[in-house]
Amino acid sequence: MRRILIIGSKGQVGTALIRALEESPDVELVVSSDIKDPSPDDHSHYIRLDATSAEEIRKTLVVHGINEVYLMAAMLSATAERNPMKAWDLNMTSLFNVLELGREGLVDRIFWPSSIAVYGHHAQIIKTPQHETLQPTTVYGISKVSGELWCNYYHEKHGVDVRSVRYPGLIGSRSLPGGGTTDYAVHIFHAALEKGHFSCFLSPDRRLPMMHMNDAIRATMELMAAPPENLSVRTSYNIQAMSFDPQTLAAEIQRHIPEFTIEYLPDHRDLIAADWPDSIDDRQAREDWHWRPSVDLTSLVDLMLTDLKIKDLL
């Protein structure tokens, strides 16, 4: 049976991952962890854990008999630009800690997320290929490229079963995002319902790859369930669901909330997004482990507005 540790569980993806993993019939235990102190509404198996401390992680693996780790702790793109050295330390030290524990045989399988931030302005923008030039212009992107290469190294040199996907912008209702450039696509729904107006920090036509959280979690779990011999990519897999720009998303929201308005005040995050792909070629993921998205733009907006209205009623 799988006994799982999620590091960085209070983040946008970690929050959704807890429930999905606990519902898996072959999962015996899910331990969630983050740098924050426990609170009354935390997951029942929550512990405080510093991702940059190898000894804290090692102790947790031993005490709980963990055999699978999901390393979700990271400083995201916009926040990392304000704290580059702190971001590099968190993003890389946490990864090395887990890879080393994998090398020592203390964990059987590791998931570590990469991002479309690995691409820079030299990459093909439309249908960006799996194997494309990686020359990012942000600290976050640089740490993800480095992490991909180290994951591949540990797999090839030490046999560590580490797996990864390049997440596009992720949109979910369970928690607020934590400093990413694509965060507008979550905040816009809260603003539409609470104020009827949104000030967007990206240009109206800044088209980016996006994905509903349900698809992101399913992609993660399907990759982790795939037989090792089926996997041809040990850096990080491209995955794609949909692409849209802020004005297209706003128009879709206005179908439900006609009075909703939006203004565009592009800032430094728009410059970051300008170096990212318009759309992603994910054929390798489709071929290797049969990846298919299920949520398009119309159903994404339906899901988000419904889920947020329900949360407000609880």
Give a verbal description of the structure.
The protein has 314 residues and is α/β, with parallel strands linked by helices. It has 11 helices and 14 strands. A 6-stranded parallel sheet has the order 3-2-1-4-5-7, with helices on both faces. Strands 6-8-12 form a 3-stranded parallel sheet. The two termini are 34 Å apart. The mean pLDDT is 95.
Quaternary form: single chain
- Major sheet details: 6 strands, parallel
Mean pLDDT: 95
Helix content: 40-55%
* Gyration radius, in Å: 19 Å
Topology, number of strands: 14
Secondary structure class reads: alpha/beta
Helix-strand pattern: EHEEHEHHEEHEEEHEEHEEHEHHH
Gross morphology is: globular
The fraction of residues assigned to DSSP E strands is 15-25%
* Distance N to C terminus: 34 Å
Supply the number of helical segments. 11
Strand order of the largest sheet: 3-2-1-4-5-7
The low-pLDDT segments are none
